[in-house]
Specification:
Radius of gyration: 15 Å
Order of helices and strands: HHHHH
Distance between the termini: 29 Å
Bound molecules: zinc ion
Low-confidence stretches: none
Oligomer: single chain
Helix content: over 70%
């Protein structure tokens, strides 16, 4: 249950970042994204749904598995670089909770890697 909430939060965080980026770069407003950005957002959500770490998913920032296609990875990195610092002003509670979500990522990742070694 706890984990599912984190994943919903992660998706919300990504969506917020995309909105900030798109509003400033592509002149969109409100809850609207341009075609390009909404395609990138659905891609990001699909990656979260398919994450190999589920249900114990780390935040994407601290992840060791690079599941994004290179082009998409560059695009999302640019969004995060731009929107990251602005998130704290726009959605302070969500941002802080997302940062807190990332606190135990080291544990999550090493737990996963141990499991994988076990299987190999
Ligand atoms: Zn856009």
């Amino acid at each position: 249950m706890q984990e599912a909430k984190r994943i919903i939060r992660e998706k919300k965080t990504v969506q917020h970042m995309m909105l900030i980026y798109c509003h400033h770069h592509h002149d969109t407003r409100g809850e609207t994204l341009c075609d390009e950005c909404s395609a990138l957002l659905s891609y990001a959500n699909a990656r979260i749904d398919k994450c190999t770490f589920l249900p114990d998913k780390p935040t994407c920032k601290n992840c060791v598995v690079h599941c994004y296609a290179p082009q998409k990875r560059e695009a999302i990195k640019e969004v995060m670089r731009y929107a990251g610092p602005r998130m704290l002003l726009r959605a302070p509670i969500l941002t802080i909770r997302h940062l807190l979500d990332g606190r135990k990522d080291d544990e999550r990742v090493s737990r996963f890697q141990k499991k994988k070694q076990h299987r190999a």
